[in-house]
Design a protein that fits this description.
36% strand; 12 strands; mainly beta; globular; 170 residues
């Protein structure tokens, strides 16, 4: 028998410890009798110091994982449009106060927010829902097709102290 661990405080805030430099911006959709509108990024929010320069969206099929990936020149900034995903982060930055830490973050259409992934943080994205998850990314630099800023490791690498059960993906 295993006892549940605390995951939220009495005020409803998460107890998840975050890797240094990861931040969130909660976003409230506006709903009326016609439907819904949801802003995804606004420089006036002053959430992130870097301007919006490029965006794209990607999908992940149910049960599939994209990762491990790392960027050396830019940050990712995620917004989930539809579906549910787990983002697992591993801090391998030499001088980071959270070096060696693993964080698991859940992004969902049910709690809209932006999340950044700092330069030098390994990340893997796993669809934990029953439909394709749709993610918009607002990276801090434009994609360089000739020289992509993307480096990869296998899903169950020994370099990262996190294992995915029944890992499907790359």
């Amino acid at each position: 028998m295993k006892k549940d661990e605390q995951t939220v405080n009495s005020d409803g805030s998460s107890t998840v410890k975050l890797i240094h430099g990861v931040t969130f911006k909660n976003i409230e959709p506006q709903i009326d009798d016609r439907g819904m509108v949801c802003e995804m990024f606004d420089t006036r929010w002053t959430w992130h110091k870097d301007p919006l320069v490029f965006s794209y969206f990607f999908t992940i099929r149910p049960g599939v994982i994209k990762g491990w990936g790392i960027h050396k020149k830019h940050e990712d900034r995620y917004f989930v449009v539809s579906g549910e995903m787990e983002v697992v982060l591993y801090d391998d930055r030499k001088n980071s106060p959270t070096k060696g830490m693993v964080s698991k973050i859940y992004l969902t259409e049910h709690k809209r927010r932006l999340m950044n992934i700092p330069i030098g943080v390994w990340h893997a994205d796993r669809n934990i829902g029953t439909k394709d998850v749709v993610i918009v990314n607002f990276p801090t630099i434009c994609y360089n097709h000739k020289d992509p800023d993307k480096f990869r490791l296998p899903l169950n690498t020994k370099k990262i102290p996190h294992k995915f059960a029944q890992a499907i993906g790359w």
